[in-house]
Amino acid sequence: CRGLVDCFLIVKQKEEDSCVLDTHYNEENLTFTVSNLFAAGTDTTAATLRWGLLLMAKYPHIQEQVHEELSRVVGSRQVCVDDRKNLPYTDAVIHETQRLANIAPMSVPHQTSQDVTFKGYFIKKGTIVFPLLTSVLYDESEWESPHTFNPSHFLDKKGQFVRRDAFMPFSAGRRMCLGEGLAKMELFLFFTSLIQRFRFTPPPGITEDELDLTPAVGFTTP
Ligand code: HEM
């Protein structure tokens, strides 16, 4: 069994052999599952990484601090997942990038499966609901400076990494992002490997102040 598709096909075969009718393991679901994984798992991580590099170009003193921490803790060997716990500043920069980049501002639409009253509002069964992640990621009662890039949002006074409940780029609840662990691992490994080897700067003739952080409109925020 080499991966998801093999696993799926093996169960499909078993169910066919035991004459299970009405199975979820059919070709249509296989196609949807694989295409969903591509759609949900490629542009999201790539857009976040691009935001990370743009922010490093705009704030060179922060890029320098990430570089210093990486040189001190990892040196020139390849970064591995286990290094993250020893790189609190870098970890905070990646979290702050995800918060400010806010790449899935409306998460994905859900639909109420029954009538529900939420915070005094009646929502009828079958209503489409968009959970606005922006409202949490930029919540003024949660973040000291919601609209600025500030890695201290994820650091305590001693410079140790702190988790924040309002960090919700992967949404929340039962249907939250299935790829959170994979995405975090990818972002950490790609971001650190790039900063270890390169310096990111604005193009010639452009100052850091001129780098524009206005997001473009898209399903994710490019
Ligand atoms: C920075 C990267 C990513 C972000 C910010 C992100 C964000 C999200 C968000 C906001 C949702 C909607 C959750 C909800 O319905 O409430 C979601 C769903 C999902 N994500 Fe991600 N995602 C990322 C990367 C990935 C990766 C790498 C994969 C897998 C390869 C993935 C797979 C999925 C899947 C399968 C769902 C649907 C889950 C379901 O409906 O039960 N995501 N993601």
From TrEMBL:
Heme binds at residue 177. InterPro entries: Cyt_P450 (IPR001128), Cyt_P450_CS (IPR017972), Cyt_P450_E_grp-I (IPR002401), Cyt_P450_sf (IPR036396), Cytochrome_P450_fam2 (IPR050182). GO terms for biological process: organic acid metabolic process; xenobiotic metabolic process. It comes from the Eukaryota. Its main location: endoplasmic reticulum. The keyword Methyltransferase does not apply. GO terms for cellular component: endoplasmic reticulum membrane. The keyword Cell inner membrane does not apply. The gene is LOC102193472. It is a peripheral membrane protein. It holds the Pfam family p450. Keywords: Endoplasmic reticulum, Heme, Iron, Membrane, Metal-binding, Microsome, Monooxygenase, Oxidoreductase. Its cofactor is heme. It is found in: Endoplasmic reticulum membrane; Microsome membrane. One of its GO terms (molecular function) is iron ion binding. Belongs to the cytochrome P450 family. This is Cytochrome P450 2K1-like.
